[in-house]
Design a protein that fits this description.
CATH architecture of the largest domain: Alpha/alpha barrel
Number of domains: 2
Helix content: 25-40%
Distance between the termini: 19 Å
Number of helices: 25
Structural class: alpha+beta
Amino acid sequence: MTSQADEREVAEERRLREDRERIANWKRWGPYLSERQWGTVREDYSPNGDCWDYFPHDHARSRAYRWGEDGLAGVCDRQGRLCFSLALWNTRDAILKERLFGLTGPQGNHGEDVKELYYYLDATPTHSYLRYLYKYPQQIFPYRDIEHTAAARTVHDPEYELEDTGVLATGYWDVEVEYAKASPNNLLVEVTVTNRGLKEDTLHVLPTLWYRNTWVWGCTHEGCGLKPKLEAVGATRVRGWHESLGNYLWAVDESGGKAPLLFTENETNTQKLFGVDNYTPYVKDAFHRYLIDGEKSAVNPKSRGTKVCSHHVVTLLPGASTTLRSRLWQANEPPLDQETHTESSVFGEAFTAIMKQRKKEADVFYSRALSPRLNAEQQLVARQAMAGLVWTKQFYHYIVKDWLGGDQHQPPPPESRRSGRNSDWGHLYNRDIISMPDKWEYPWYASWDLAFHVVAMAIVDTDFAKDQLLLFLREWYMHPNGQIPAYEFALGDVNPPVHAWAVMNVFRGSAPRGSRDTAFLARAFNKLSLNFTWWVNRKDPDGRNLFGGGFLGLDNIGVFDRSRPLPVAGQLEQADGTAWMAFFCVTMLDMALVLAEKDPVYEDMASKYFEHFILIVDAINSSGQGRGLWDDEDGFYYDYIRKPDGSSMPLKIRSLVGLVPLFAVLVLVREEVKALPGFYKRASWLIQNRPDLASRVTFMNEGGSDRMLLAVPTKVQLLSLLRYLLDESEFLSPHGIRSLSKVHQNSPFVLDIEGERHEVSYVPGESNTYLFGGNSNWRGPIWLPMNFLILTSLKRYYFFYGKGLQVECPTGSGNLMNLEEVSVFLARRLVSLFLPGPDGARPCHGASKQYRDDPAWRDLLLFHEFFHGESGRGCGASHQTGWTALVANCLNITLGYSHAGLGRYSHKD
């Protein structure tokens, strides 16, 4: 984190160290509040597993959650006990805006889809400074219009967005929220409201503080034997008490006008939802009823409860702004680390000074964490990417045993649950801060997404990256059989095995070579060996080193659902599944060699993974006799169906499935490997005595006497794959590598089975099928994580082949590049997604004139799930900053950095 030119810690680096060394708990409070708790598997107690209908958006304001909370621009403590967020009312809506609205999977014509405008503008890794922007229409929010229009559209139609409704034409409110920490338990809040409308207008702003409801479920694991409480201590201050969190004070600044405190309970309105008498007259939706329905008796006149807000009424002329302030701090600490508790110390000059100081410290931190060679536009992209990555941390709570069995004093779950979803994951106990793919569309972890998140996160917070990787290998996450949990819809689904790759990248990027954290590496290696064994035992049923695995996170990339039984007799052998295992294997070899430098016991494991890698490479590259996944005629890797009669049928779809074999590459330095005599002796023996296997890999053959290459494709195969990869009529788009070759636009792959037609055609934008819910599309768009793996693999090939191996880039152009130059070329195309072009438009914004021309929109970036294969327009989840934050790593590659926040090329470098 510190530069060679200046070894002095800056403030945010000091906070990271103090948190790591447990000197100060700087990460206790953060942006951990989910943006959607309703419609999740955790909250679903239905008999049929229909989570969207069981807990819809319309219930969320009135119904207490079981496993978490959600809110708008919110924060909470690391166990989600005390939460803070905003509520807004534009005087016209029928609903108090307490959370983000969107369509459920069945409602959206392309699956779940948030229909709001919000942006993560800044964030430091200790959350000492956070900045968020929300755009709220001044007219009635078009809930029904969005639902009805989406219902009338098909998968062949575009999504209907908030901008399409026309509701923004007459104006909207910019609501900017900033948080700053005076100390680990002292949080300053500023909400700046700006009228972006055509006339004077009024907005109600309700900063809201509440306790997550842990008391009605009878749970005993959260230190919640006693119900927490909030109560007024004066007109502008609230005291909160929680059994395990302790005492906190919340103060509201009234310098801009009176803001009365309103109190209620975070309890379900059972009368409204179920026709059953309420346990208390003061329930979760009280502020909505008080403000919109005019029901003044909805709030507690005794000024106490478990949920409180301050009610600000803001009236502004067009273009005018005002700022509202509040503060939350631990009651045994002075609000500004001073002896006085007067109002002036809470909201005086020191408040303003701390807000400015934390913002300045964020600037200084990023000036060191990001390359100084980035220009202003590139820095904007990198910094907002990092901000989104930090903001999408979430408190994630899911104890499967309790979820399956139900809670005391509550209706029992249906009997079908005991043999249904996740019923064989009863050991899973999740109550942690986890990096989410998207806190609205995917407010649950996905293990392979997380592996990419941490590689980007390591640019600013290596400790968090390490902790996340180890967390998923813990016994309360990892299944006893060695499987890593996939995601809450199906914990037993199979994601690509990229965890080991992420471990190696974080390890190598964490510190100078001599001081790297080998204890972290060893802990991960030992658990990953269990996971590797699970793969071998479960996904190679015939022991032939040709693997299945199902959809492997690539959703609709296949001609049919690869996770289901085949529509024809036979067995599917997957080019990506087999190549992912080769990738896993060679990464474990890399890891073992590093560990063997200090402990020769690991040489035995290195030998094991070396041999297994060669066996997999032999299997995938064999041809003839119904073996192998390489097609000599096309020069490409394909999935194959092996039929019971011994015949084989290739599924000739040119997709990322056939490019995954590029990833399994490792360069060893000969003299360094010779320093490990046990491994070197066994590896040499295998090569000398099994020439049939050794001939399948490029090993010790070229690239100079000091280097040894382990890779799936031979040099001839590599060149064949690169011709496809760099062909603009195939995979190469103006903004990166497509997930499906464009050749299938005019030549779809068609498979007729017993009169049923199965087809894959080039679809560069949103999915045109409902396979896996229709959210994601792997039949043409650009995906940052897979592109990033391609870039880093090319760098490793370059480390072996050097400048002597050149290819046409683009194919047919006559322009020759070495593979390092190709990686930079591709990285530049990827980052162009977010940079303004000659007309000022950023491709990720599509054809939007507002983002191109309006100063209030121009510098606001969204990091989508994937991007249109032709235009670069953002598609899918609009805030999936997690793995799309890899654009920051790609920016470093464009500058020629060899490391760029990723592992270097050889096992020693």
